[in-house]
Amino acid sequence: AHLLPVTDAQPPHQVIDGDFARELLAGLARRPRSIAPKFFYDREGSALFDRICELPEYYPTRTELALMKAQADEMAECIGPDAEIVEFGAGSSRKIRVLLGALQRPRRFVPIDISAEHLHVAADALRADHPGLDVRPIAADFTRPFDLPAPHAASRRRVGFFPGSSIGNFGPDEALGFLRRTAVLLRGGGLLIGVDLVKDPALLHAAYNDTAGVTAAFNLNLLARANRELGANFDLAQFAHYAPYRPAEQRIEMHLVSRRAQQVRLCGHVFEFAEGDTLHTENSHKFSVAGFRALAEQAGYTPRAVWVDPQRLFSVHWLAL
Ligand code: AVJ
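The joint structure predicted for all components is written out below.
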């Protein structure tokens, strides 16, 4: 598909693709150039992200998973029996398995993910392992409004699960907006959410600048995806992965930096890059425990339990409603 139509009268899975053309065109035209990180997650990008999670430098996945395994019983107690779990950005489902193993009679699992294929593979595997569980995957962009199925008849409360510190992709205002919207969806239940912590900048830098170059490949895959899906002609060798930690903003930024003056064609448009021009592809905000609890409270949640690993790398919060 070279020139994708971008009308709204398309089936939902294609609307997501149409968004990529429209948002990349707009992102390359604005200054500074930027694009939302959700566009990383095509099939290749989701597979690259799974490899990032295995990297020795990328501590969040390993740390959160260990924290969940160690504290699963306490987490399950906060959530209570007969819950319906809604996971935002479900990916490959390793963390929900730990939670499902500890929960009393989980009734339904609703994984929401932008990467439809990844989502359905994981949902099928989960169905096979939890025959009693009503698994209802939704292929959707959870940063936009979406519909949930009517509450499960036998479930007592709806609880959100948002692991991995994906909340960090939002800016402060967007994070507050997202938390406020989920508080409406999850009324009477709560949210179990993983949040990466502010720490030694050297550790943060290493986590997004791995020596094997997987994070660089993940970042550059955005351009490869534009070539594959939109017929763009980005020369990947002429863009560099750049991921500094910005202490003042408490965030990692990811950019693609043009290695030289060049022109790129996309959907009949020509975009000029000078040497050193960047396309900003991601922010990954880090939080203090107290700062995150204050944000959650502002959004209408009651922060209750919080679990932190011994090295204070990562936190998991139970926010009641
Ligand atoms: C999926 C948003 C939590 O910010 O750490 C990993 C994405 N980007 N390496 C993160 C990511 C580069 C990740 N989140």
